[in-house]
Specification:
Elements (H helix, E strand, L loop, with lengths): L11 H26 L12 H8 L3 H6 L16 H25 L9 H29 L1
Length: about 150
């Protein structure tokens, strides 16, 4: 879905590198920075019920990305015509992705008895892979909404 967003710039060079830079490079760099941030601070470590709400707020980014400049759409309008909106949404999406994935992986084994922490880590890894698979499958449905 994000790889389908086109640049509105007149610059041919920027148009050529828009998707590789703004979609793939930007996502991976920001995701890495988000994962690295858990080395410096673990928030909300003390207030864990806040964590699902923060992760759930990320769902609001999906419609925002769907409303960016994706050509050949049938149903949804383009509300965010400028490239900067897409870049902003991708930065927030990827930074929060890296941070919350790493945070949950760090905090989950601490929430169980010490002898069960290995099992908790394995279960977290399973659900991470399941979430990635479900997200990939959901992308076909979201693409059909365009």
């Amino acid at each position: 879905m994000t790889a389908s967003v086109d640049s509105v710039s007149e610059n041919k060079t920027w148009n050529k590198f828009f998707t590789p830079v703004c979609c793939f490079l930007l996502f991976n760099v920001m995701d890495w920075l988000g994962r690295s941030a858990t080395s410096y601070f673990l928030w909300p470590e003390k207030n864990l019920p806040l964590l699902p709400a923060m992760v759930g707020l990320r769902l609001l980014l999906i419609p925002l990305l769907l409303l960016c400049n994706i050509p050949h759409r049938s149903y949804l309008p383009v509300l965010f015509h400028q490239d900067a909106w897409f870049v902003l949404f991708m930065v927030v999406f990827s930074l929060s992705n890296g941070y919350f994935v790493s945070l949950i992986m760090c905090l989950a084994p601490k929430q169980v008895q010490p002898h069960e922490s290995g099992l908790a880590g394995a279960i977290m890894t399973f659900f991470l892979a399941l979430g990635l698979s479900c997200g990939a499958g959901l992308s076909f449905i979201l693409k059909a909404l365009l």
